[in-house]
Amino acid sequence: MPSDTIEHTANGTAATTETMTGAEIFVHALDAEGVDTVFGHPGGAVIKIYDAMERIQPRFEHVLVRHEQGGTHAAEGYAKATGGVGTVLVTSGPGATNTVTGIADAYMDSVPIVVFTGQVPTHLIGNDSFQETDTVGVTRSITKHNFLVRDVNELASTIRQAYHIARTGRPGPVVVDIPKDVQMAEAPFAYPETPNLEGYSVPGKGAPKQISRAARMIEEAERPLLYVGGGTINADAPDHLTKLARKTNIPVTTTLHGLGAFPETDDLSLGWLGMHGFYHANQAVQHADLIIACGARFDDRVTGKVDAWAPHAKIIHIDIDPACISKNVYADCALVGNASDILQQLLPQVGPKDTSDWLAQIDAWREECPQTYDTSDDTIAPQFVVERLYEKTKGDAVMVTDVGQHQMWVAQFFKFGQTRSHITSGGLGTMGFGLPAAMGAAFGVRKRGRDLPVVCVSGDGGFVMNGQELSVAAAHGLPLKIAVMNNNFLGMVRQWQSLFHDDRFSHTDLTATNPDFVKLAEAHHCVGLRATHPNEVDDVIDEAWSVNDRPVLMEFQVPKEEMVFPMVPAGAATGDMITEMFNKDAIAKEG
User: Fold this and answer.
1) What is the CB-side half-sphere exposure of residue 328 using CA atoms within 13 A?
2) How far is CA 553 from CA 124, 165, 484, in A?
3) Minimal CB count within 10 Å: which of 2, 206, 364, 553?
C-alpha cells in the first residue's frame, strides 16, 4: 500500500481503514515513528518485510550492513551521535544471535536502540525449526524490555511501545521478535499517538525537599566535586551542568561516557577519573568532602576498591534510575529524576562558592603528576597521534574509539568540548565496536545536517573484528577518518601480561596474522595511508582530510612496548595509582 494512502492526523497518529499485511504495517509504523535510518540484513524470516520495503519505498533509508553485529554497533553510534533511537532489522536464528553482543553493549551503556528480529511462524516456535532461536529468552537479561508479537493487530502498538521504552527514563535496547506468519497476516493499520504502557512511568523533577537538602550540602562543603556520567548527556543536561559548575566554582570530573558533558578546556575541568583517569582527578575524589554524582552509576572502573573510595565525602546522587541509587556507593542525598530537570531546580538555590584553596590543591596534584609521555625521533608515540588529531580538529569532531589502549589515550589526550562528541564502548568493553559505531555516527551526523568530521581511532586487534563494514561506509560515501594504532599486539592485554604476569605474552602477538592495512582499505574501496615515523604523522592526517567522498584509513605503526599510565591495579584503591615514576618491580608488587 503506498504511503500516500495513509491518513496522518494533526496529532501525528497514522491510520487507514484498509487492511494490509504485517510486513506493510511494520514499514508504515517505522515511517510514522519518524525513523530515518535502519541498519539491517535480510534473511528468510524477514523477507516479507524486505519485499514490503521495496514495494512501498518508505521515507527511511535502509543501510545493508555486512554483519548483524556491525548493524547493532552502527545503531549505537547513530543513537549516541544524535540523541535519537537507533534501529536494526535482522532475520531469525543466526541473524538474531549475531546482534547479542551489540544489544548487551547498548544495555551496559544505556544506549537507546530497537532491534527487530524475524522469527519462525508461531505454530513452529519450540519445534527446533530451521533458523529458530528463542530470541526473547536469549536477550531477556540484556534488554530493557523485549516483545514477541503473536497477533498482527498488536504489531503497530508494540512498535510504538518499543521506541517509547527505548528512549525514555534510563535509555536502553528493546527487542521486538516478529514471527513470519504475523508478517503475512492482515489487519487495519493504526499507529497510536500514545504508547499505552500501563504501569510504566518515567521520573521527572526531583523531590523539592531533597533539592533543598542538596543545596544546603553544597553550601556547607569546602571541597566539593562534580562527578559526571553519561546519563547527563542522555538527559540533554550538559548546559545546565555547566551553569551549575561555573556558578558555584565547583570542579568537574567525568567518566569515560561523560566526556563532552563539560568542556575540557574550562579551568574547572579535571578531565576523567578512574582506572586510567588523571592522577589529580582521582586525588580530588579521595580528598573531597562532597561528591555530586550526576548521571553516573559508580562503576567499578571509577571506584576501584569501593570501601576505600572517597572516604571523606558525603554523596549527592542524581540519577533517573532508582535501582542505581546506593547500589555501589551509599547516597547521603538521593535525587531521583531527570538530570536536566533536577539541575534546573537546583540552580536557583545555590550561589557562588570560594573554592580557590581547593582548586589550588588540585592544581598542585596536577603538577605533581602531569599527563606526559616519552617521545622519540624514530618511533611514533600513539599519544602524539591523538594530540595531532586534536590539533587538526580543534575538538570540533565526533571521536569514536574501539576498545583497548588507544581508547584510553584518546580519553587522556583529546580535549572534548561539546556534547555527543565522544562515542565508545564502556561497560561491556567490546572490541570491534569502533568502525561500525563510527559508520552509524556518520549517518546520524549526515541526517542531522551537522558538518562535523567523524574520526574513528582503533587498535589493530579490534579493527579487524568488524573491518568488513568498510565497504558499507565506502558504498555510502561516508568521509570517515580512521586511525589504526598498529602495534601488532593486543596492547592492553600485553600491558597486563608485562606488569602482572612476568612478561609471559600468551597469544597476544598479532604479527603473523595482521593484514596489510593499506591494502585492506583499498580492497574495501577506501583510501589507505601509512605513517612509520613521527615526521610523517601530520602529512598523513592532512592527506586524509583532503578526501571527502569515502573513508580513509590511516595506519600509524606504534611501539608494542608503550603502556597506558596512570593506572589503578585491579582491586586497588583509586588513591593508589601507579604512574610511570614506578619501576616494574614496584608495579608487580602493587598488583
Assistant:
1) 17
2) 46, 37, 7
3) 2
Q: Which residues contact 134 (CB under 8 A, 6 or more apart)?
A: none
The model's pTM: 0.95
In angstroms, what CA-CA distances link 500 with 381, 489, 575? 23, 17, 19
Q: What separation, in Å, do the N-terminal and C-terminal C-alpha atoms of the chain show?
A: 65
- What Cα–Cα distance (Å) separates residue 40 from each residue in 24, 47, 413, 551? 17, 12, 35, 21
Q: Which CATH class, in words, describes the domain spanning 3-191?
A: alpha beta
Provide the residue count of the chain.
Answer: 591
CB 169 within 8 A of CB 138: no
Q: What are phi and psi of 568, to 5 degrees?
A: -105, 115
| Mean per-residue pLDDT pooled into runs of 10, the chain (591 residues) | 52 71 98 97 98 97 98 98 98 98 98 98 92 96 98 98 98 98 97 92 94 98 98 97 98 97 96 95 97 96 93 97 94 97 98 98 95 92 98 96 98 94 96 98 93 96 97 98 98 93 95 98 98 98 98 98 91 85 51 48
382-565 topology per CATH:
Rossmann fold (3.40.50)
Grid coordinates in use for 576? 593508589
At 294, is the secondary structure helix, strand, or coil? strand
- The CATH superfamily of 208-368 is TPP-binding domain (3.40.50.1220)
